[in-house]
Amino acid sequence: MPGAGDPTRRAFRRSLAAEGAACGFVLGLAFAAASILAVRALASPESAWTPSLLALVPSTSLLGALLNLRRTPSPEVCAALTEDATRAGGLLLVRDVPGSDAWPSPEPVAASAPPRLLRHLAWMPAAAAALAFALAAPSEWFAAAAPAAPQAFPDITADLRNALDDIREEGTLEPETVEEIAEEIRRIEASADPCDPGAALDAADRLRERVAALLELGDAAIARMAKDRGSFADVAASPEAAEDFRKMLGESCAGSCPRGEERPGDGCEGGECEGAGSGEPDRGRGDAAMSWTDPSELGDSKYVDGAREAVPGDRPDEVRTGESVSPEDPAAKELAPARGEGAAPGGISAGTSVNRRVAPAHRAAVRRFFESERKPQ
Amino acid sequence: MTLLSPGDIAPVKAVLDRALAALDAMLLGRPGLHRLVLAGILARGHILLEGLPGLGKTALVTALARILELDAKRIQFTPDLMPSDIVGSHILETRPDGSREMAFRPGPVFCNLLLADEINRASPKTQSALLETMQERSVTLMGVTRPLPDPFFVLASQNPIELEGTYPLPEAQTDRFLFRLRVGFPDAATLAAIITSRSQGRMPDPDFTLSRDDLARAFDTVSRVVLPEAVAAWIGRVVAATHGAEHVKYGASPRAAIALAESARALALLDGRPCVGFDDVRAAAVPVLNHRLVLDYRATLDGVTSDSVAKHVLDSVPVA
Questions:
Q1: What is the set of domains in chain B, with CATH numbers?
Q2: DSSP for residue A298
């Protein structure tokens, strides 16, 4: 172990250990304060946690100090750091090599560790203040943050039972429906598991929604149809059911009004329904006929099927070839590369200057590049 | 492993200090450069001097050869220089008895101190003749390997601005140089001292010369300077950190780590210490690493030099 017995190295390591312990202690206090705040905000009742919270303070602070103390660098690392800090020229690292006694020890004045101990201890008041706040804060501050206790399972079924009694007295729903709901409540209570009330709560919620839907419809026929979606077929089959349905929707004519029962102002004059949704049941736009075989109407299309007028050159025997002089220099045309193609190989002959602009952002780099070609590195 | 005693180091340091003082007296204004050159000699390394014309690169080598009392030869590298002009060649000789045989005529490389002036003016073929001589310190011709005199150093100079008609040194050759030292421009006071104390710029004779025994003792002492494990580990981390560093295409070789350790040993001895410290490595790191880092194109665009990259790597690697 190089330099193990050197007082300079020992002092350095002691300083590092004290610094680590102080840092861990402060961190432990801060952790305790944060934990206390979290527990007080989330836990209820508060009095049950108080002894544990108080025990948290010394345990976390001491544990933090101990953990950081164990992270103190090894003696070898301390020797190297001290050597570098004191500029001892390697003499601290060869303290255990035979013959080192003949050389003077380096000056211990510069051997003190980097005094970061005070910097860590400066955080101690802040951590202590946070801890005091966490312990002394009034309980009322945390009451609002505490979540409401979940409603017990029997209350939900009792609520349903009370609602069902009211329905029974007012006769809002048919007796069969009321009995069915009561049976459902009994089934939910029988199958409820106190350890896992989730399924029963879900079933009760679904039942409540169903009762609310029935109460909202109010009409026995509509309630039956809502219960059984197949009842909508009765609307088409039975004129009475269709009339009920039409009344429920508040429409005067649902497109199926018999001829002769037209009402002026309803858009059903002459037995023909002209309002929205009128006419025979179909899936098209209004009364437009729909078929898969008829050609499309091209009235609003720009395409016109027809031959254009013939122009000279359409027929091969009308094309004439000949020679002429271009107003531009053909060589210059060959030299100019197409846009985006770059210069073709050999396209720029000697003597031809290429005028390309360099983006302002690149000019410094290009200048440095060419300057570096001429200057020493 | 025993630490050198103060009694072992003091006489060697005294001799080296006198040699360094003599060099400073012959060439004015560059004590730091002279110290690194002497450290490179003590580390048995080859040195590449780079600088503008007229800054005294050749004069430095000449002065060093006179102080060290070594057999020094100079080769002016030119584009038509051939490998045989460096290492020698075989010629057909007629013996007195009338028989003929191929006789070896050694080239100027068979010396202690070879000044390769303007080394980048020779073709790569000719430059390659120095590869074996610099690394193995031997010359192999026609199947016969001949060792070079001991010690053997190559002190080369090159001009970084006149690039026409030059051939950049290949990486295999630059890696064989222990240091690449940049010879800078002296300040105005130094210039005034030079022109007032030197007639026509001629440097005076050295007031101290180092004998071969003194030099051998210095070599032996350098090899006994202790390299602590922590410092050796740091050297390894620094060299490894050059690989993958920003702006670096190829990092330093293991030869760089060896060169860094040996030059740090020499600097510790010049400082009169029996062991290497971190500051010795810091002092030698840039001259050792700057010519061994192959930078990428972004370094050219960003204006980053190998010196700054080496310094950044050195600062970014903690000692422990």
A1: 1-79+110-224 (3.40.50.300), 226-320 (1.10.8.80)
A2: -
